[in-house]
Structure formats: structure tokens, C-alpha cells
Amino acid sequence: MELTPEQQALRDAVADLVRRHPPDPEAGTAAGREFWRLLAGIGAAGLALPERYGGAGAGPVETAVVAEQLGRVLAPSPLLGSAVLTAQAILATGDTDACQRLLPAIGSGAAVAALAWTGKDGGWDPAAAGCHAAPRAGGGWTLTGTAHYVLDGDTADILIVAAQMPDGGIGLFEVAPDQPGVEREASPSVDQSRRLAVVRLAAAARRPLGPAGAQAAAGGTSGRTALARARDLACLALAAEQVGAAARVLELTVDYTKARVQFGRPIASFQAVQHRLAESYALVTSARSLAYRAATASAEDMPLLSRAAKAHCGEVLAKVAAEAIQLHGAIGITWEHAAHRYFKRAHGSGQLFGPPARHLAEIADLVI
User: N or C: which end of the chain has fewer CB within 10 A?
Assistant: First the structure.
């Protein structure tokens, strides 16, 4: 698809910021927050939030434009976990009070939010959660359990927890990250540029999220719907991020094959190498087309297309990154070269929000 002039300007603004302030994929929390502050300064943090909550009122395409540029440099930003997954889950609950209190800070970049959701299996199923909620004597809820793979969960200022309700539904709860009974621990990942955490809970919830407060949480329907909507949008952003990473690692590979001389000639002149590069280019092009087509999907088509984009773009990045390692040779697996970082991002992001096989199975359920 062709980007509008406004979308092109957004793309150029993010690309220019990345050029002027190149992020370190393995930067610490302070450096990552500073880069996020700069991104927030050009509106990236609140891009997809409604204007009434301090956002820009843009849509999935604009988010994809930003995510693609960040994916090119493996930027360690909380765009995916805070500005997309958690913010959209809060918005989808329809809880006006929570939106008014939480979303302006998330959209301005002043606060980073995290959604503690999935169990150790990493299923990201909207009908399941790693934590459980139980009613307290005198009112309120107590949350217990462990959520895994929580994006930016160890440093987030706002913590939203998805919990299994007594009736089998799903509720979303706001929890103070620093209250007693909340334990957050950074989780080692193959992809050092993606901050993941384990969140263990044995604590009281601050409040349930939903249009009717505790009643909505008790029923669980709004929580399940909110998680499904947030996951669809997060998959769209992740697909665009994977496209950006695949495009950039292919560029690095093409440049290397032009410079690397073997048998007296650049290896890019060998037909076998050209075929592999051409196949990678075709894969990246198809992935970009699907990612942006999915980003323009209607509400009815989004569940299908977001899963297709997540599965295909993830597999494309894995294939292109693997080719990059092969065509770079031994230098591709050295710590100093960037190729191994793209390979790790491919395998880490491939499992995020569910592996490709799970999404393909869900596509089959929707189609058949």
C-alpha cells in the first residue's frame, strides 16, 4: 500500500530520530527510558490513543509505520508492551475512569505500563491467564499466581493484571507495582533487546477494570474481549516490527556480499548467492504487504489478518536472519557484528503472543 503524506512524514520523523539518537539494543533501563522520552516527544507513545485521552487518534497503520522503523534498529522501546498491548487493553475495557487516569501518562511517555497476562506456556489465550482472582471478605479482590513474559514488567510504572475469575471468566485488574505481595523479576531472554519479566502476585488488586467495575470483572466477558482486541493490535505492531528487522538485516547482508571478495570477485556476483538474496527480498516484500494489509483490516477481518501477519512476518524474519548468518559466514555469529542480534530477535519475537503454529491453528478455526 502507498503511505499518505502524513504517514510518510511520520516515518521520516522516526527514521531521523533513530539516525540522530541511535538506540543501543542492549542499553540499560535508564538509556531505554531516555530513548522512549525522545520518541514520545514526536508523538509515538500516544499515537493510537484517542484524542480525549491525550493521544493522536491515529490507527494501526500509523503504529505499524513507527514499529517498522524501530524494528530496523532493534530499538529497546516499550512501544509494543506499553503503548500498544497494555494501553489498548485498558481502552478496550471501556472503563472511562481508568482511561482518564492511566492513558494520558502512557501516551505522553511519562509512565510505562505492563500487562501481566500469560502463564508459563506462553499461550496468550484471551480465555486464560497465569493469575487467579478470589473475592476478599469485606469486598475487593485478591490476586495470586505468576505471569510470564511480561513486556517491561520489571520496570513498569503501571501494572495491569489479567486474572482467571472464579466463574471461569477473565478479569483485568489494576495493581500497584510497588505494593506488598508483588514480586517482579527480569527474565533472561535470547533477545537482549527485549525486556521480559516474571510477575508473581499474592496481593490485593487496587481495582477491577471494566464499565461496571467489580460486576464486569466477575463476569469476565469484558476482560476476555479486551485481551483479544489488545492481542490483535499487538500482533499487527509486532508484524511491522519484524518487517523492519528483516528489511534491515537483508540490507546489511547485501552490503556485505558486495564487499566480501572470494576467488578474486565479490561473492554477490555468484549466482547461488544472488538467488538466496532474491528469495529473501521476495519474502520481505510479501511480509510488508501482508503487515500493512492487516493494519488496514476492518474489525471483522482483523482477528484473521492479524494472526496471518504475525505468523508470516515472524517466519520471514527467521528465514532472512538465518540467511544473513549463512552469507556472512563466521563473522555473522561474532558478538561485535549485528547479524546475530537480528537472528535472536527473530526467534524471540516468533514466540511472543503465541508461536506461528498456534496462530495458524486459530486461522483454520476461523476459516473452516
Answer: C
